[in-house]
């Protein structure tokens, strides 16, 4: 057995990589991705999509996502960013639109080097970006259309000052904290302003 059982070094793949058996190609990684991840309106996958959208805006999408990290995005400026998403519409049948809310619960962090979780629960990022998929017509819902999203950016210290132990927050309550409300084009500047506010 190989004695090196540390974290895997993950390299970015293209989707063209073959799935093979006995040297014969029977599929591709891109085919798997299309099969498994085409429902970008799914509430779990939508959260990962929101992280990628924010990472693109911040120029931090070149590598690969680290799902177990204490924060969602780390930028070249050494800012740490937490991304939260919510929506009115879901993939499944709905009697009415969902009541959107964002997760803001302080949490412990997991260290992949030691495989341990800290007992201290806190908010680990410098900045929170709240991504609301505001579109409310299911026939034309498209999470890949960035015009269907609204972004709210807030220094983490505001959450800690105003809602230190709160687990969730609605968009209306969030707006009472005076976040920067922007579209995709305004994300980078808004995050920079909020990040500098924490220094």
Q: What is this structure's SSE topology?
A:
Blueprint: E1 18-21, E2 24-28, H1 29-37, H2 43-57, E3 73-74, E4 80-87, E5 102-103, E6 110-111, E7 116-117, E8 127-133, E9 149-155, H3 156-162, E10 168-169, H4 171-175, E11 180-182, H5 187-197
Parallel strand pairs: 4-8
Antiparallel strand pairs: 1-2, 3-4, 5-10, 6-7, 8-9, 9-11
Please describe what this structure looks like.
With 199 residues, this protein is of the alpha+beta class. Helix content is 24%, strand content 22%. The protein contains five helices and eleven strands; from the N terminus they run ββααβββββββαβαβα. It has helices at residues 29-37, 43-57, 156-162, 171-175, 187-197; strands spanning 18-21, 24-28, 73-74, 80-87, 102-103, 110-111, 116-117, 127-133, 149-155, 168-169, 180-182. Strands 3-4-8-9-11 form a five-stranded mixed beta sheet. A two-stranded antiparallel sheet has the order 1-2. The protein has a two-stranded antiparallel sheet with strand order 5-10. A hairpin with a 5-residue loop joins strand 3 and strand 4 (80-87).
Please name the defining characteristics of this protein.
199 residues, alpha+beta, 5-stranded mixed sheet, 11 strands, 24% helix, 22% strand, globular
What's this model, at a glance?
This protein has 199 residues and is of the alpha+beta class.
Q: What does the overall shape look like?
A: globular
Please give the share of residues in helix. 10-25%
Largest sheet: 5 strands, mixed
SSE topology string: EEHHEEEEEEEHEHEH
Strand order of the largest sheet: 3-4-8-9-11
Oligomer: single chain
Radius of gyration: 19 Å
**Count of discrete alpha- or pi-helical segments spanning 4 or more residues:** 5
Residue stretches low in confidence (pLDDT < 50, at least 5 long) are: none
Which class best fits the helix and strand makeup?
alpha+beta
Strand percentage lies at 15-25%
N-to-C terminal Cα separation, in Å? 46 Å
Which whole number gives the mean pLDDT? Answer: 94
Find the count of extended strands (DSSP E, 2+ residues): 11
């Amino acid at each position: 057995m190989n004695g090196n059982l540390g974290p895997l070094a993950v390299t970015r793949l293209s989707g063209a990589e073959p799935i093979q058996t006995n040297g014969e190609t029977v599929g591709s990684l891109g085919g798997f991705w299309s099969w498994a991840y085409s429902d970008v309106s799914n509430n779990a996958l939508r959260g990962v999509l929101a992280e990628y959208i924010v990472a693109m805006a911040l120029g931090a999408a070149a590598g690969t996502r680290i799902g177990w990290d204490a924060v969602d995005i780390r930028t070249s400026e050494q800012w740490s960013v937490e991304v939260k998403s919510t929506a009115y519409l879901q993939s499944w049948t709905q009697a009415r639109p969902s009541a959107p809310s964002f997760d803001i619960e302080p949490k412990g962090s997991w260290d992949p080097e030691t495989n341990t979780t800290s007992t201290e629960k806190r908010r680990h990022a410098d900045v929170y970006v709240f991504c609301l998929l505001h579109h409310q017509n299911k026939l034309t819902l498209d999470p890949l259309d960035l015009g269907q999203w609204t972004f709210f950016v807030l220094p983490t210290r505001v959450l800690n000052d105003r809602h230190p132990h709160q687990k969730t927050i609605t968009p209306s309550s969030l707006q009472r904290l005076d976040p920067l409300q922007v579209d995709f084009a305004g994300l980078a500047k808004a995050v920079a302003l909020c990040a500098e506010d924490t220094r």
